[in-house]
Amino acid sequence: MSNNARHLTGMHNALRRLALPTLLALAGLCTGIGALAAGERPVVQGTLSAPATAVPAAAATPVVAAPAAPAAPAAPAATFAVEPAAPATPPVLVNGLVRVPDGRLLAPDIARIVTRGELVVAMLKVDTPPFFFFDDSGQWTGLEVGLAQSLAKELGVKLRFNREAGTFNAVVDLLANGQADLAISKLSRTLARSQTIAFSDSYLTLNHSLILNRVKFAQLSRGRPLPEVIRNFDGSIGVIAKSSFADYARTNFPHAKVQEYATWNDVLVAVNKGEIVSAYRDEFEVKRVLKADPTVSLVLRTVTLKDLEDTLGIGVAVTDTTLLAYVNQFLAQRAEKLDIQKVLQALDR
C-alpha cells in the first residue's frame, strides 16, 4: 500500500471514531427538545438534565404552567357556597302548605313570619297619640301598638316596628315594597291605596270633620244656611300633603281650593291665621284640637260630616291572602272594639 493510501485509510478511521459520539450527542439533543415540547424535563442518555439550565427553560415555556392545575378543585367550592341558601325556603307541600321548624303546616305567608320569628309592622315615624307614641316614661305605647302586640302574640313571634316612613302614603310604600308584613298606622282605607295594598276590615270608623275660621267662613257664607254652604263649598281647604284627606277633599269638595301642607300643625296654624277658610280631617283629630285648647273655639268652629266616613284598616300585601284572612279573623274575635269615645278617653290617659 502506498503512503497516500495508508494516509487516507487513517483519516477515514479517525472520522468514524469522531462521528459516532457526535451522532449520539445529536440524538440525545433531539430527544431533549422533544421532551421539552411535551412538557417534560429533558433526559439525555438516561440522565436528568442539570437543574441550572432546565428549570429556566421550562419556566419560559407557557406549557410548564400546567403544575398549577391542582388549584382547579376551587371551582366546586364557589358552587357549594351558593347551594346552602336553598334550604332557607321551607319546602312547599303538594297542598300548598309549608312545614315550619316546629312541625306545623302553615300557609306560605304565615310560615314566612313564623320561620323568621318576627312580625314586622310599618308605622309612621311621627308620634300620633293615642294610637302610637312614647309616653312620659319613655314607653312605646298606644292603641295601635297594642293591636300589633296582640297580633304578634297570637302568631307566637317577636314584634318589630319599621318607622322609616315620614308620611302615611310612605307607610303604604314600605308594605308594598316588602319591608314590612303589615301596616298599622291610622291608615284610611282609600281607593288609591287599595290599588297597591290590601286592607283588612275596619277596626275604627270616624266621621269626616271640618275646622272653620269663623271670620273667613262668615265672609264666604254671606248669610246662607250652613248645610248649603258646606254642600257647595268653594272656599279654601287645608289638608296634609299626600294624605287620604287630600284625596277626600278633591272628591267631596270639587269646587274648593285645596291647599296641601307638610304637617297637620301647619294646617292648623294656617286656618287659625285666616290664611285658609277650613281644615279637613277626621273627627278625632278635629275634636282633639278643641280638647287640647278650648279657647280656640273663639276663633274656630267645627262641623262633623255624618254622611262621610273614614274607615281605618290594617294594610296587608296583596299577595298575602291567608295573612289578610288571619288579620280579619283576629279583628272579628277581638273583644274590645274601638269607637270615637274610646279613642278620646285613651287620649286622656
UniProtKB/TrEMBL annotation:
<feature type="domain" description="Solute-binding protein family 3/N-terminal">
    <location>
        <begin position="118"/>
        <end position="347"/>
    </location>
</feature>
<protein>
    <submittedName>
        <fullName>ABC-type amino acid transport substrate-binding protein</fullName>
    </submittedName>
</protein>
<keyword id="KW-0732">Signal</keyword>
<dbReference type="Pfam" id="PF00497">
    <property type="entry name" value="SBP_bac_3"/>
</dbReference>
<dbReference type="InterPro" id="IPR001638">
    <property type="entry name" value="Solute-binding_3/MltF_N"/>
</dbReference>
